[in-house]
Amino acid sequence: MVQRLDPLASDPLASAPPAFSDEAARQALGAGFGLTGSLTALAGERDQNFRVDTADGQRFLFKISNPADTLPILDMQTAALRHIEQVAPDLPVMRTLPGVSGEPWTEVPGPDSRTYPVRLFTFLPGRVTPNALLTTRAIQALGETSARLGRALRGFFHPAADYEILWDITHLPKLRPLLDHISGTARRAQVERVLDRFEDRVVPVLPSLRAQVIHADLSLDNVLLSDDLQVSGIIDFGDMTHAALVCDLAVSISDVLHGRDDAVAAAEAMIAGYTSVTPLDNEEADLLADLVAARLATEITVTAWRRGLYPGNAAYSASGEPGARDFLDRIEAAGQDTVTARFREACRGLPYRSAASGLLLERRRRALPRSPLFYDRPVHLVRGEGAWLFDPAGRRYLDGYNNVAVVGHGHPRVVRAVAEQERLLATHSRYLHEAIVELAERLTSTLPPELDAVFVVNSGSEANDLAWRIARAATGHSGAVVTGFAYHGMTEATHALSPEEWAARERPAHVATVPGPDGYRGAYRREQEGWAERYAAQVDVAAAELGDRGVAAMFVDPACTAEGILVPPPGYLREVDRRVRALGGLLIADEVQAGHGRSGSHLWSFHPSGIKPDIVVMGKPMGNGFPVAALVTRSELLEAVPEETELFSTYGGNPVACAAALAVLAVIEDEGLIQNSARVGSYLQAGLVALQQRHPFIGDVRGTGLLLGVELVEDPQSRRPAPARAREVTEAMRDHGILLGTTGPAGNVLKIRPPLVVTHEQADLLLNALGEVLAVTRG
Asked: How far is CA 664 from CA 15, 277, 676, in A?
């Protein structure tokens, strides 16, 4: 073991840290600085630190330095602090205080026969803040602070600035002798990949980058924040050295953000803060992601090495290592080249990010006059990742509404599938290609065996339109049945099937409606036996209204999402199915909103009822944002469609769309997202029920998996809808960084429908924010 460390024996990290007793530290403080007071031990990697509280209420930082940091190194740090004080007095750095001799340090004998330098500094206000509590603005501010500190040190130099320490990421190749200390073959291989890439991409370019004396350790351990998350203190200049300027930013990204589930996205906010003060050159921007990975690899490797060297200091040494592993895993999962591109774009800024939201709103209203927007103050979004969405300033919003990005915004596996297929081939489906065949086979394998014919199209509206054509041809009937506030699309045919979108007196003669199975406020209530089946019996009433047209099909969203997320019991669909078939019609399950695992029990939401629809339609989530939809039916139904009628869409089923859809299905299965929908959905629903106990104007909480509705009412007795209150809540939640929608005939039901990757922690954020909003809601 010792022999393996010999090549690094001169590194300061290889020197044992001080181990003064409290009494010995008090004696050194008194002898060197003439102070007495109580001492409180503070964390430190290779030094020993104490907070000093004197009897007259003063507070100081007392540092016993490692002897490996020689007097020239201490002189450099002292000179740097004085330089910053002169050129940037607004930067909250600690100040060096003189000892009884007038010098900024004195030397004292230690318990191990070594001589130790001791120093005294001003004590800065603030606290070390866990990165989970950092807002986007706080992250940006940390980036700005890093850049401001670099600017302050721009004109500083010192003969000892060639200080070498393994934390300096420009020396990453020196870590190779330490890799054997990393436990786990896979982890060692990962770090080796970082080293190999660093030597290939970074080492040849390093000499050409801007270089100066940098802090090199602006981590959350060394930046103090106030209660309102403002930077109140910059401490510990012990790693200061001459290196590439961009390394300061790389260190901050790595050490501040590691362990966050949005680390890559949050890095872009920090980059935005840094570059608002100091723009990066193209070469610096191109290497930033590799330098971040280098710092993470350094954290993993040095921690493993020092854990064996100094087990007594293991807690401090290893405190950031799990987060470093997590961040490095996320970079590898996204792809190092992908993260490089994202960081490079963040450094340069995207053209559309420069557009002010107000100006953009005016332009949109002129160019898209009938295009609706959510919220009184529309949310301007530029990027998404997982369950988060981000505005141009880097503020993040928890997406509790959109079911398009079912596996999370920007899922790297879907993005990669789309990009790779686009590069290879993007054409229509009249040519033979594996993707559309594989997708069709994959879809039919998830459905009852009778459903064996697939059509891949562009949108749910197009799929429902085609389903309506097939139903009329197969049955010879021309009438449709839908629930009273359903939505099935925006084409002329599907608009007729969408009462939610009808204008006054617009109801088409060939469409009859049945009331949605509202067991809370409808004609039949959940406390009545057979209530759901009584709603299903309304199908016969609707059929009678259609008269000679007959029932060609009934379109059913199994969760009745537009109706207010009613999610009727399985008996409802079974009885609807029985009655529609008795009338000679087809049952069409519209899975656009409730499908793709959102229910938390199956891939398709009709499955728990045990029915076998004649046609299943899927859309929105199918491509996770890429336009693709599908219809699956029984092949014998197609015999009624004339042979000369081609059921074909030029763009539908193109290889890129199919690649996206296949990637989504694979992610849902491989990441266990149906199970996650059940777990987090149950947790979220329980939290909503708990809120209901405190707020009587929550009339009902219902749903399944990650499709939940919260019905707001004027009072629990009358159950009158409270749409104004619902709108007030969604507007306030937007201000809290949570995006929700409303639904239902009265618009009084909060629609909670996050991506299936949402976590328990994110559910807590939603519940906590909703609790705060409900407490002040007037309605």
From this structure: 52, 40, 15
Q: How would you classify the pairing of strands 106-109 and 96-97?
A: unpaired
- The mean per-residue pLDDT over the stretch 710-726 comes to 96
pLDDT grade, residue 136 (50/70/90)?
confident
Rg (the chain; Cα; Å): 32
Q: Are 95 and 80 in contact (CB under 8 A)?
A: no
Residue showing tokens 């049952």:
587
For residue 599 the two structure tokens come to 């229910």
Burial of 389 (0-12, 13-18, 19+ CB in 10 A): buried
CA-CA distances (angstroms) from residue 662 to 199, 404, 460, 599, 666?
A: 37, 15, 17, 20, 6
Question: What are the phi and psi torsion angles at 93 (to 5°)?
Answer: -95, 155
Find out whether 270 and 249 touch, Cβ atoms under 8 Å.
Answer: yes
Q: How confident is the model at residue 779 (pLDDT cuts 50, 70, 90)?
A: low
User: Which tens digit of pLDDT belongs to each residue from 394-444?
Assistant: 788 999 999 999 999 989 899 889 989 998 999 999 999 999 999 999 999
CA 720 to chain centre: 37
Distance of CA 451 to the CA centre of its chain: 36
Bridge-based pairing of strands 48-53 and 59-64 is antiparallel
**Total-model pTM:** 0.62
Mean pLDDT confidence for 237-258: 94
Question: Which alpha helices (H) appear in 616-759, and where do they start and end?
Answer: 655-670, 673-694, 723-735
Q: How far apart are CA 54 and CA 74, in angstroms?
A: 25
Give the number of other Cβ atoms within 10 Å of residue 252's Cβ: 31
3-state SS assignment for residue 149: helix
Contact 626, 651 (CB under 8 A): no
Q: Give the closest residue to 754 by CA, choosing from 397, 417, 460.
A: 397
